[in-house]
Amino acid sequence: MIRAAIGLALLLAASPALAETISIGNTERTYSAQVPDTKPAPLVLVLHGNTQQGTDMQTRSSWPQVAQRERFIAIFPDGLNRAWADLRGDTERAGRTAPPDTDDVAFLTALVSKYVKDGAADPKRIYVTGVSNGGAMTMTLACKQPQMFAAAAAVIMNFTAAMADACKPERPIAVLLMNGTADPLVAYEGGKGTSRYGLPNVWSTAQTIGFWRKVNGCETGDGPASQLQDSDPSDASTVSRIDSRCPQGQDVLLYRVNGGGHRMPGRNPDAKAKRMVDAILGPQNHDIDGPEVIWAFFKRFSR
């Protein structure tokens, strides 16, 4: 099963943090939050991947450290059954699925509204990011609630046909994608990943970026591109930054991880059993740190 393979692959010592709760209809939902003393502060929703929980994003990435230094609210929600109910169709999924009738748009927007109402969050500086299934949920929120978020960043995820058909945002939203060209689960060039656990029928990264360029009124085709420093030659990957020619404040940006796998780039390793994880998910890039790059993008935008 995919959940067993990925769960085994991502071997890290992680003890669950004490969760907070919020009721959505008749369902109690859980999340963890890191809140600075400064009010109102920017807020970043950080969405985990399939089979994971919010605590995985706290322990396997630098989001807590970046949030503490930059003094923004970081919220780490938990998907029901360790999955998110994004806009993909049933035949476009792999791994765990959220229970029927799960409304994660309602859950996540209620979380944001709670912190805005409390005066803790600045409603003009709300952002969302996620990896894999969390990346699909990130784009779902960008599709359904673009008026709430100043920017969105999806990592190791592309659109599917069903997502694209259902995505009709009412306004532009700044978008960043960060995908690996050797991702065995979410094929960079589209179709089905090379792994037996690969997601079926995904769009290519080029198609996904093209969709957001159209939404944001950008020119078609790539804008300026730059090759970032290969600061860790041993990680078997490099990073290219590909910009778009867009109206001010409606940026669409791609970080292409050349040779990168189904992994969030990070300065520190995200797993203990490197050989096994690399074999299942592909290599992790260490030239950039995903949360640092995403926050640098986010803080340029406000509503």
**Count, helices:** 9
What is the CA-atom radius of gyration, in angstroms? 18 Å
Cα-to-Cα separation, first versus last residue: 42 Å
Shape: globular
Q: What oligomeric state do the depicted chains represent?
A: single chain
Q: What is the beta-strand fraction?
A: 15-25%
Low-confidence stretches: 1-17
The CATH topology label is: Rossmann fold
Assign a percent range to the helix content.
Answer: 25-40%
Main β-sheet, spatial strand arrangement: 1-2-4-3-5-6-7-10-9-8
State the domain count: 1
CATH class descriptor: Alpha Beta
CATH superfamily grouping = Alpha/Beta hydrolase fold, catalytic domain
Short description:
With 303 residues, the protein is α/β, with parallel strands linked by helices. The chain is 27% helix and 21% strand. α6 links the parallel β6 and β7.
Structure description:
The chain is an alpha/beta fold. The model is unreliable at 1-17 (pLDDT under 50). It starts with a helix and ends in a 5-residue tail after the last helix. Helix content is 27%, strand content 21%. The protein is globular, with a radius of gyration of 18 Å. It has a single domain (2-298), classed as Rossmann fold, CATH 3.40.50.1820. It has a ten-stranded mixed beta sheet, sandwiched between helices.
